[in-house]
Amino acid sequence: MSKNILAKYVARMAPAAILMLAPKLTLAAPTISLIPSSTTVKIGEVFQLDVFAKDLDVGAYDVTFQYNPLNASIDQNQVTFDNFLGGPLNSFQSLFAGLDTLELAEVSFLTSPDDLNTLQAGRYFPLAHIQVKPLAAGTLSFDFTPTDFTLISDYVGNPIAGVAYQGASVFVMPPDDNPPPPPPPGGGSEVPEPSGVVLLLSGVGFIAVGRLWRRRAIS
Q1: Residue in 81, 85, 59, 80 with CA at minimum distance from that of residue 151
Q2: Domain ranges of the chain
Q3: Which of 30, 71, 76, 120 has the fewest CB atoms lying closer than 10 Å?
């Protein structure tokens, strides 16, 4: 093989070799995730749990997550949907609360895909907000669970494949101990107990009576 031919072969193979040896670039998967407003709370301290979409053009969705109802309470009347699908006027929103699950669904009624793209231009946006009240100390977990209705679709209703679902965990601490009692009146000076006052007066009375008897005996 002549030098010229070898040089041409190396020049042609060099880009392929670089691509083979270079680390592969992986695109982040589109995700639906649960994001708590705080990862550490106390019993009875209400926090917010948000459903977020990332790298998705969402025209409709139906997702369900589960939790332990002995460890947390969710009031479905306090669940709110955001406006990134055109709501509340231009979308249909629904929810269903089970014993240990919460199902959230929404369908956009926007008539132009450009309007939907404008709303979701940030590529990372909340879909819904849930108020959670922890009931017991420990780790409180929220995990997506698939159902027959689970779906993420685009503007025209085509299902979006490859969506990753990410749950969340919150650590719940016991409430603070009872505060110390307020200081006694008078800037913290101790007030004698009634029994102590009685003893003091009795002692003074005995001393006075003793002195009186001595005076009478001398006279």
Answers
A1: 59
A2: 36-173
A3: 76
Total residues belonging to the chain: 219
Nearest-CA neighbor of 65 among 168, 164, 157, 200?
168
Q: Are the CB atoms for 31 and 54 separated by under 8 Å?
A: yes
Query: Which H or E run contains 9?
Result: helix 3-21
Query: Over the stretch 142-196, which tens digit does the pLDDT of each residue have?
Result: 999 999 999 999 999 999 999 999 999 999 999 885 556 676 766 555 554 555 5
- Could you tell me the fold of the domain covering 36-173? Immunoglobulin-like (2.60.40)
Number of H helices, E strands in the chain: 3, 13
Q: What is the pTM of this model?
A: 0.69
Cis peptide before 192 (omega within 30 of 0): no
Angstrom distance (rounded) from CA 45 to CA 4: 77
